[in-house]
Amino acid sequence: MSTKSSTKEPSKEKAKATKKTGTKATKTVVKTVKKEAGAETNAKMLEKQAKEILAIAEQYGVEQNFLFLTTFKRYQVQLSILNELEKKIDESGALVTKEYVKGRENLYTNPAIREYNNTCTSANATVSILIKIIKSLRNGDDDEQEDELLNALGVK
What we know:
Layout: H1 2-8, H2 12-21, H3 24-60, H4 66-92, E1 95-99, E2 105-109, H5 111-137, H6 143-152
Antiparallel strand pairs: 1-2
Helix pairs in contact: 3-4, 3-6, 4-5
């Protein structure tokens, strides 16, 4: 009978160790749950934000502009790439090992981190271009609408 209670309730020392460092299995389960929930949430969230931005852009009359459309599409692709890179970094971690001919392993920074940073820089530049396009092409002089669209893009 004492065996059942010990399996249901971990010892105080084990509980403290788990709280401080967490077990590998627990971390794996948490990562898996976050990935599954996060993938759906991120995709839906990005789609919702894109629709909102396009709806606001329609109010300005810039939604049919070739430069706006192509730049906005490029921005969406960059966000999609960033989401995929985040997943890969979460899966493999910040450091990766490479094994060479003699069986020696060397530790390297995950190359996905470099690509993630480069894509972030490109996405930031793309947003800057979108903002310039919106400011130069907007039809109305209503500053409230401008604030709404630029806020949707993350600019005040």
